[in-house]
Amino acid sequence: MQTPDWHGVIPAVNTHFNEDFSIDYEATLNHIDLQIKHGIHGMIALGTCGENNTLEEDEKIEILSRIYKMVAGRVPVIVGVSELSTQKAVRFAKAAAPISDGFMLLPPMAYTSDKHETVEYFKAVAAAAPQTPIMVYNCPEAYRVDVDLPILRELAKIDSVVCIKEATGQTRRITEITREFGDRFLILAGLDTHALELMMLGAKGWITGLGVAFPEEDLAIYQLQQEGRYEEALEIYRWYMPMLIFDVVPHLVHLIKLTSQRMGLSNGVCRPPRLPLIGEELAEANKIIDEAIATRIDLSKYNL
Q: For the chain, which domains are there?
């Protein structure tokens, strides 16, 4: 399979909800369309920030269908496959294949699979939709399975496994993968707090969480590092870092939606079991966002 041109700034888009926790389709589509108009290079639908595991299967297919139709080929639509069982993952993959441009495949949810089980799970999903390119999402801190080099050796034998979302938090991992596999896998940065480092080490882009609220800053960082203007990229990155930390804490979805709400892009509603932020956590988050807004960098000075 030819490796897809997945690169640049790829936000993990939010699923928006009404106050009664039903899906707000209009808000979801409008937010995605706005990000495309800003210039994003692709998107992840139904990832962690899309609250995949709070949605019923029919809801996933409905929102994905609407997204894919609205995007209309302007950017790749990569859908998160995040299920409890192989059977459910295979069923969803078959249904999602015609209305997406690729899968971001997570290890089985809830159950912590061993190496053999992890490989077989990925094989089963790949076989269910063999023409659909697959991105391996490796975030062991969150999902308890490390798709390490021995597992990647097996996955490299699957033609449709073409990409790795590298979210281990280990900056050396991208070098280890590249040393062993060369250009066999396209690698994308998968943590906001390591994005610039990983792109400087060879990642082709950034799957971003906070980018749903600050797409222009993400795009500026990406373009500046592409042009070798690292000091300027670092200036934005250092401004951004207190908010980027939102992406690597347990309440990341709440915090990213709060940030979008503060930027006038969301009502901030998450679907239970996620509940509204309260107390010191909410106050601290708002303090960080307030400071970021007050000190926001004028991007026009970079002449991008």
A: 8-238 (3.20.20.70)
